[in-house]
Amino acid sequence: MKLRVFLLEERVGKALGRTDAADIIKNNIELKVENETLKKSLAEKCQLLAQASGAIEELENQQRASLASHQAEQRSLQQQLQQLQKVIATHNTLWY
């Protein structure tokens, strides 16, 4: 946005014949400062993005481990259920 304003001001200045060297230097310095500020902001955002990516990866690993644990528990409970059903079937055949 500031760059567009700068370019528009530059065009208007040239159209009116007013291209003051001090203004050009001032604008150049402001643009350099803004550029460095944006670079720093981008670096910070990249760092945050990398941290978020790491956190998501860790959560995915935890989710996989939890899923594996639940599946193992489910298999164990299924086996126990089958064994109990066999015991019940055996007792039923003995009683009838």
Write the layout of secondary structure elements.
Blueprint (H helix, E strand, L loop, with lengths): L1 H15 L4 H75 L1
Walk me through this protein's architecture.
The protein has helices at 2-16, 21-95. The mean pLDDT is 87. The chain is rod-shaped. By secondary structure, the protein is mainly α. It starts with a helix and ends with a helix.
Keyword list:
mainly alpha, 96 residues
Question: What is the first-to-last residue Cα distance?
Answer: 89 Å
Let me know the average pLDDT: 87
Give start-end ranges of low-pLDDT stretches: none
Number of distinct helices = 2
Largest sheet: none
Radius of gyration (CA) equals: 36 Å
The class by helix and strand makeup works out as mainly alpha
The number of distinct structural domains comes to: 1
Percent helix = over 70%
Shape: rod-shaped
Number of strands: 0
**H and E order:** HH
Please indicate the percent range of residues in DSSP E strands (runs of 2 or more): under 5%
In short:
The protein is mostly helical and 96 residues long. It has helices at residues 2-16, 21-95.
